[in-house]
Give the backbone structure.
Amino acid sequence: MEIKMLKNEKNVVEFEMVGADIALPQLLVAKLNGEKDVEFAAFKKEHPLVGHPIVIVKTKKKDALGLVMDKVEEIKEEVEEFKKQFKEK
């Protein structure tokens, strides 16, 4: 997967996830919308069969890119915990 940064400002970040389906952007947006400082987080994909998901995040005060990175780390930790528990079973 490749990330193409379309907009990177303090309170707004927009990026395209080339080669991704909608699963990861959907999870990321759900996590971001759980944050009180997030004003808006969504993704769009122009057509189900072509194009790539574009994630848009707007925050009230916090650094939007930093918040996205925090949520990506949180997702990574949850996946590692899942793998650990799954292997134990």
